[in-house]
Amino acid sequence: MSLDLATESGVGVRTQVDGGVLAQLTLSHPDLVLGPTLGRAPEITVEPEYWTDADDDRTVLFITASGDEFGAFETALGVDPTVADPVLVDRAPGRRSYRLALTDRAITLVDATAAVGGRLRTCASCRTGWRFRIRFPDRDALVAFNDRCRDRDVSVSVEHLRPADADANAPVALTEKQRELLTVAYEEGYFDVPRRISQDELADRLGVSKSAVSQRLRRAIAQLCGSTFD
């Protein structure tokens, strides 16, 4: 990845604001921070606030959790091996904030993001783990990030990509696999009434499993709906 020298300010500042890609990724692994808790209380949405180093050399993380039922979430927090000493520090209707200490078992990927020149835009929990939105200097940086995740056995699913300097209201690009599936599904009559092809037949046509077709369809349609309604 190349960083050009910006001269307008009169000071040597490298820049990577031109070009780049914005990627929305779903990351999954049992030992990702709060992974066990998210699996036990999927109805609660968690967003990190910030973390810092404490005097006892522990990393302290502050999070905000949103939802209606916090009982199962707090029970799961108490036995989650990726965190220790959970403390409720604030609450409001439908929202609670907690302070947690990360354990040695916890996997974090902030260092991997920074190492490839990425910038974390947003991070929130989802039903399968964590959903990151990261701006990468280029596609090579995204590939390098994926490699670092693979080295830690973290599963990475690319939900969508778009040029980082595109209009924020522009539709988000589908992944190649999503685009291929939707194209075949449309051409073969999956969306017709009545349908002219089933998910089983789509799977055979594309050489993938039925579960892969089902998941890919849901993600692609959800992505298109999100791009439209946002």
From TrEMBL:
CDD domains: Sigma70_r4 (cd06171). SUPFAM superfamilies: Sigma3 and sigma4 domains of RNA polymerase sigma factors. It holds the Pfam family HTH_10. Keywords: Transcription, Transcription regulation. InterPro entries: BAT_GAF/HTH-assoc, Cro/C1-type_HTH, HTH_bacterioopsin, RNA_pol_sigma_r3/r4-like, WH-like_DNA-bd_sf. Residues 195-215 form the HTH cro/C1-type domain. Transmembrane segments: none annotated. It comes from the Archaea. The keyword Transcription applies. This is Putative DNA binding protein. It comes from Natronococcus occultus SP4.
